[in-house]
């Protein structure tokens, strides 16, 4: 099975390549080890473990994802995240702050999202949001998708939109995260075909 998406053409775009002018900061492994107090786990995803950390300068709180070096998918996610989201800045996308490339080690550094995932809110009985709040979350996600599909210079299909990949900041603003399965549309490309990917039960966006 495969899917097809069609979009209107947007203004001329530049290809995004992993090079010295990539916006995210390059961290050393030692920096991130210190920031996370020796990598104390916060949670685990499909391709790696997530840690909470604090950068020495400015006391900025961060989330660090250490990708499983045994998995080919981990390397793919690392490359995809940097190329796709490294230069993108939108209030409804989780910001990629930096990365670490140290031998076989691959780590991604993000802004820390205080209120966890949308899944943690929707599926926890005592946290059930009102319908007005749910509509607000939906609007946030829609704004993020509109930016990815139509407004940024290179159109992006996320391919794995689900509550677990929507994170909430301290103001409960919903932000799209986890671009490891995303697809970039080439310059002047208006449609793309892809095999089934993402999580069963959710529409690929």
Automatic annotation (TrEMBL):
Keywords: ATP-binding, Disulfide bond, EGF-like domain, Glycoprotein, Kinase, Membrane, Nucleotide-binding, Receptor, Serine/threonine-protein kinase, Signal, Transferase, Transmembrane, Transmembrane helix. The keyword Glycoprotein applies. Pfam families: Pkinase (PF00069). PANTHER family: G-TYPE LECTIN S-RECEPTOR-LIKE SERINE/THREONINE-PROTEIN KINASE SD2-5, RECEPTOR-LIKE SERINE_THREONINE-PROTEIN KINASE. Its main location: membrane. Belongs to the protein kinase superfamily. Its EC number is 2.7.11.1. It catalyses: L-seryl-[protein] + ATP = O-phospho-L-seryl-[protein] + ADP + H(+); L-threonyl-[protein] + ATP = O-phospho-L-threonyl-[protein] + ADP + H(+). PROSITE patterns: PROTEIN_KINASE_ATP, PROTEIN_KINASE_DOM, PROTEIN_KINASE_ST. It is a single-pass type I membrane protein. GO terms for cellular component: membrane. It is an enzyme of class 2 (transferase). ATP binds at residue 65. This is non-specific serine/threonine protein kinase. SMART domains: S_TKc. One of its GO terms (molecular function) is protein serine/threonine kinase activity. Residues 36-205 form the Protein kinase domain. It is found in: Membrane. Coiled coil: none annotated. The lineage of its organism: Eukaryota, Viridiplantae, Streptophyta, Embryophyta, Tracheophyta.
């Amino acid at each position: 099975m495969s899917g097809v998406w069609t979009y209107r053409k947007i203004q001329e775009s530049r290809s995004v390549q992993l090079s010295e002018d990539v916006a995210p900061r390059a961290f050393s492994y030692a920096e991130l080890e210190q920031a996370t107090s020796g990598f104390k786990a916060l949670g685990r995803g499909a391709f790696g473990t997530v840690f909470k950390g604090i950068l020495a300068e400015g006391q900025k709180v961060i989330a660090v994802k250490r990708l499983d070096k045994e998995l080919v998918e981990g390397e793919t996610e690392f490359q995809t995240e940097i190329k796709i989201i490294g230069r993108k800045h939108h209030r409804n996308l989780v910001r990629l702050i930096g990365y670490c490339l140290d031998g076989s080690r691959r780590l991604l550094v993000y802004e820390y999202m205080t209120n966890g995932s949308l899944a943690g809110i929707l599926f926890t009985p005592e946290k059930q949001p009102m319908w007005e709040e749910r509509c607000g979350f939906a609007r946030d996600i829609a704004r993020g998708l509109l930016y990815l599909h139509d407004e940024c210079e290179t159109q992006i299909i996320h391919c794995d939109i689900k509550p677990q990949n929507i994170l909430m900041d301290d103001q409960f603003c919903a932000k799209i995260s986890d671009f490891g399965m995303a697809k970039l549309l080439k310059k002047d490309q208006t449609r793309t075909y892809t095999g089934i990917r993402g999580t069963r039960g959710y529409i690929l966006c």
